[in-house]
Amino acid sequence: MTSFEDAETEETVTCLHMTFYHPCQEEKMMFRCLNFSKREQVRADETAKFGRDSNVCRYSLMDARVSRIQFALQFYRKLHSSEYCFEIKNLSKRTKLTVNQTELGYLNKIDLPWRCIICFGDYQILAEIHEGESVDYFETHLHLAEAPILQERSLPSLQPIPESGISSSIFLCQDKSPTEMDENEP
């Protein structure tokens, strides 16, 4: 037998990829304390905290509008399962945290979906979990987005639409003002 055959099986590590975006990143550099260059190992029994207090938080955001501790991620294994998950908990008393449309108030927590968007204030974070087998630690790999993760969606018109289904804004665009009509007129 060769040493290759005797070598222990290499275990894969769960990796949490997080892509950060803020519209003022260029001017304010709020992500300057985050390590975007390589993966970081986090012990399985540690809580990964995000916020502005670098003495408490592993991941510091340099912004006075961010809470001292904004949120925390806890790695865990589901009961009677070999599946590993992350739980996200909002630790900000001032700011609600949104995870894929689910709003979390202070101390609310949910399981982090395998792919989701986390939002608070103007911050957008795309989180993607790549599963692994390691029980001792997980890895984080941080990325910086150049464009918004959530694209602005066009809002529906705030003008009322008449029962006929034809919006008066169509006529306004043609430089014609709307005229009042009696509903009994043909």
UniProtKB/TrEMBL annotation:
One of its GO terms (cellular component) is cytoplasm. Residues 49-121 form the FHA domain. GO terms for biological process: innate immune response; positive regulation of canonical NF-kappaB signal transduction. It is found in: Cytoplasm. Its main location: cytoplasm. It comes from the Eukaryota. It holds the Pfam family FHA. Keywords: Cytoplasm, Immunity, Innate immunity. Belongs to the TIFA family. This is TRAF-interacting protein with FHA domain-containing protein A. The lineage of its organism: Eukaryota, Metazoa, Chordata, Craniata, Vertebrata. The gene is Tifa.
